[in-house]
Design brief:
By secondary structure, the protein is α/β, with parallel strands linked by helices. The chain has helices spanning 10-21, 32-44, 63-76, 96-105, 117-126, and strands at residues 2-6, 25-29, 51-54, 86-91, 109-112. The chain has a 5-stranded parallel sheet with strand order 2-1-3-4-5, sandwiched between helices. Helix 2 (32-44) packs parallel to helix 3 (63-76).
Amino acid sequence: MKCLVVDDDFAARRLLQRLLSEIGICDIAVDGREAVDAFKDSLDEDDRYDLICLDIMMPQMDGHQALKAIRQYEEAGGIYGHDGVKIIMTTALDNSKHIMDAFREGCEAYVVKPVRKAKLFEEIKKLGLSMTAS
């Protein structure tokens, strides 16, 4: 599995990278703009991400904007629905507005920080992604 962790907080980014490295290749991005660029590069190189863990509150481009941009790039490339990258919002924001907005924008799961390994892996399994190390 190929994953992208997007978070401006070093400790949160490092934790997610450590957890996801147990089950696959894990890249990092420090803001939404960098995430969208990494996603576009993965499409161009035909080496797509299987999973993106995306924070909401970030500089440059927040998680909501990045999520919309990623889904727009997929649509432009003819990638729809279940064929797209699975996106888990990993954020401290646990109010219903952010949760509903994220699902409307196309995320598949929402995990409130602090992220716990059991909860994260449970969500990954629900998405049907392989949990075997690469």
